[in-house]
């Protein structure tokens, strides 16, 4: 009854385009938006997941300097900075970046679809990329944690929100080149209780991957703490 009233006062809307949704709609992404998601398809770099020429190939960057994570995959391509071209995922990410919305996790779950783009890999633990507490306080929630919760539910695996922590509030990564990003993020994370990740296979979750410097540094930190393997899943991959 309460839910019905809330839906009546705040009619559900699509997380992608804000179109009104039927009150009984179970998801929060309308069918045209869902169909319009710019999904990444094979052939993708066997390591970092960007489009490459042939199945199983490694991209130039991964060949030159292999990252610490085993494999990174994203649901969709995200063409950063091109507002009109950012697609459904870009729109969802922008809409939710600065405001708390409970429908986000349902929208994300919807975008994830039935299978994750990581094949049949099995993970012991789901860990979202943490925000520094100052930024968490300012923003109110961590998108990566919401996505992590959705993934953990889907895989029926435990979610750990507290073990990996961000020691420094790093400046926004957007306007930096690769090397700057890497230096900027170096030693920015720590594992509080290494015993909890020791010999575990970890799926690291974030909303957007750009150069991969953040995910790589998280992976490096987790591996140093004893994790056996770290793979990465992001909602969007900036191309
Ligand atoms: Zn829509
Ligand atoms: Zn690669």
Backbone CA Rg? 18 Å
Principal-axes shape call: globular
CATH topology: Rossmann fold
The number of helical runs is 9
Strand content: 15-25%
| Residues in helices, as a percent range | 25-40%
Largest sheet: 4 strands, parallel
The poorly predicted ranges are none
Q: Mean pLDDT, rounded to whole units?
A: 83
- Number of β-strand runs: 6
Question: H/E element string?
Answer: HHHEHHEHHEHEEHE
Cross-sheet strand order for the largest sheet: 1-6-5-2
Termini separation = 45 Å
What structural category characterises the helix and strand content? alpha/beta
Task: Walk me through this protein's architecture.
The structure is a single chain. This protein is α/β, with parallel strands linked by helices. The protein has one domain: 3-Layer(aba) Sandwich (Rossmann fold). The chain is 33% helix and 15% strand. The chain is built from nine helices and six strands. 38% of the residues are buried.
Blueprint of the fold:
Blueprint: H1 2-9, H2 31-35, H3 60-64, E1 72-78, H4 87-97, H5 103-112, E2 125-128, H6 133-139, H7 143-155, E3 164-166, H8 178-185, E4 189-191, E5 201-209, H9 213-224, E6 229-238
Parallel strand pairs: 1-6, 2-5, 5-6
Antiparallel strand pairs: 3-4
Helix pairs in contact: 5-7
Bound molecules: zinc ion (2 copies).
Outline of the structure:
With 239 residues, the protein is α/β, with parallel strands linked by helices. Helices cover 33% and strands 15% of the residues. The mean pLDDT is 83.
